Amino acid sequence: MKYLKISSVALAVAAALVGCGDDNNSSSSSSSSSSVKSVEFSSMPAPTTADKMAVTHSSSVAKVTYSDGTSKDYPLTYNKLFGVKDKVGGNANAAGQLYNYKMEPIMDPYNQPVIAETPDANSLLKVGGNLFLVSHLEYDWLLSDGSDAYKVANWYTRMPMSMLLTGITQATDGKLSVKSQKPLDFSGVDGLWIPCFGSQTPWNTHLGSEEDYDLQYNPLNTSGYATTTAGLKALNEVYYKNEKTANPYNHGIIPEVTVKEDGSTTIVKHYAMGRGTWEMSKVMPDGKTAYMGDDGTHGFMLMFVADKAGDLSAGTIYAAKWTQTSADAGGKANLTWVKLGSGTDADIKALADAATFETIFDAVAPTAGTCPTGYTRVRAGSTADECLTVKAGQDKAAAFLESRRYAALKGATTEFTKMEGIAVNDKDKRLYVAISAIRDSMTDGADEPANDIKLKKVSSGATYSADLKGGQKDTSGAAINSEYVATNMYVEAALLGEDIAADALGNTANPDKVANTDNIFFSEKMRTLFIGEDSGMHVNNFVWAYNVDTKKLSRVLSAVAGAENTGLQVVDDMNGYAYIMSNSQHHGDWSTGKNAEVDKALATIDKFDANIGYIGGLPAIK
């Protein structure tokens, strides 16, 4: 986090803390005056006993080597800050409590609080002299526990969601604790729908997401807005209390949260960045180029280039065209970029407020795989093909409000599956893209409208690399105003998943390799890519550390069996300490009967009380 400002006093304290304790090779005073040369993580074993499989824990050790040749070992530990059911920091309600547009707690039909059990993104931010944590509440598990309270007719499978702002206290030994907490109010930006992963901008704000599966409209469904029904019902009836009407075009937009030193916040949605089922967005070190992960099947890869660095309110969006050069080992491809359009938040928001699918497109169903003259067959975000044509004067609305469909119409690739986290390695000018599963639209499909991606199925997925370059042109020959344009995609050997026949514990992917990569974060100082899993193929999901120089892959955390690792953020230096932020959600979400001892251990935990926390024990990495 090189953009954070640290006082001279804090730097002096940090230098002293780094040198504390016994040194493996020489006196501790030598390390205190040296910069970090490298960080190496030991790989903790995958748990094999019920007691270890039923808890979130770390037993990894970080070996920090300094420029003077000395080194020191730092044992890592997992620290839970709070759970979604906890009342902390003066918050009158549980941390995971959901609210309507008037910031009134949402209650279920039995007058019980509706609490989100799925924390996701974290941004630990230093603002002036204060520390704050912005956290996502992704979605709700209503109907999952089988209790009578959730069997009421016309109740909801999804809820309008929210984010939390937690004030953080840092002790002299680096331990973090909760100082204050409040829910964030999204009523001024039309509410929030399924915020998944997120990131931090170079100017120290939080960049969120909206994964709007339930708000994707397929016009060829015989019931019209069938795929939007669940989401719009929840927004209209629960969030707006039938006092306002929700619009799907106000969702699937990247929100930005600015936290001020006094804990007040401002929230905007960046309509200029396009609309999709956004897992997250990551701004490059230039402060103007951003990449988005479009999570789902038949998704696309979007690049946004802002008009000005540090301002995401205006710019140009491009969609990637995949030109495959190999189908082996996750595949290889060259990338070119199709310009979709240029716009501002204000003008796209105005279009969104007035638009419907029917005002943007004419659409018909294909007949025997063909479309009428004047229509183009696309498959974008759906398994159903559509014959589309953009109505006169609606190209801008199509580009920004139906970005995936418009990308397909313009010849970009809409065959990516489960595109999740995005990270950047600035020194090597390399982008990392998590593809949680290589399947479905990424395999060879002869019936697809384009069939650009033709890879061998790897259900456990891969983390792709892409080289970033300047001086690039879009497919029309116009210059792209960025030095961070992805030009290819490929997979390093250690980052490709490996599917296996079920082992004795129930793993169907090699437990010593990453399965179903999801959250990813690159630490420039540690030269390490951190990866959090969201896998049903591993009984326990892990957080991994992959050193891009040594190519060593190390397991650094194991979550409760069945739980997903979320909220990944790495802070190299926060007042003399480093932190790996890490949450977990849907604890114990696995098929019972695989292992009686594990079932017994999981029966003792509260599966709905998810963790917000961090891996601690590291000194500042400078």
Distance linking N and C termini:
10 Å
Average pLDDT over all residues: 90
Count the helices. How many? 9
Largest sheet: 10 strands, antiparallel
Give the helix proportion (percent range): 10-25%
Counting DSSP E segments of at least 2 residues, the number of strands comes to: 32
Using only C-alpha atoms, the radius of gyration works out to: 24 Å
Q: Supply the helix-strand structural class.
A: mainly beta
Percent of residues in beta strands? 35-45%
Q: Give the overall silhouette.
A: globular
Unreliable segments of 5+ consecutive residues: 1-31, 222-226
The oligomeric state of the chains shown is single chain
Helices, strands, pairings?
Blueprint: H1 8-18, H2 28-32, E1 36-41, H3 50-53, E2 61-66, E3 71-75, E4 77-83, E5 119-127, E6 130-137, E7 162-170, E8 176-183, E9 199-200, E10 206-207, H4 229-239, E11 254-259, E12 265-270, E13 278-283, E14 289-294, E15 301-308, E16 311-326, E17 332-344, H5 345-354, H6 357-360, E18 361-364, E19 376-378, E20 386-390, H7 395-401, H8 403-409, E21 419-425, E22 430-435, E23 462-469, E24 485-486, E25 488-496, E26 517-523, E27 528-533, E28 542-547, E29 553-558, E30 564-574, E31 577-585, H9 596-602, E32 611-619
Antiparallel strand pairs: 1-2, 2-3, 4-32, 5-6, 6-7, 7-8, 9-10, 10-11, 11-12, 13-14, 14-15, 15-16, 16-17, 17-25, 18-20, 19-20, 21-22, 22-23, 23-24, 23-25, 26-27, 27-28, 28-29, 30-31, 31-32
Helix pairs in contact: 7-8
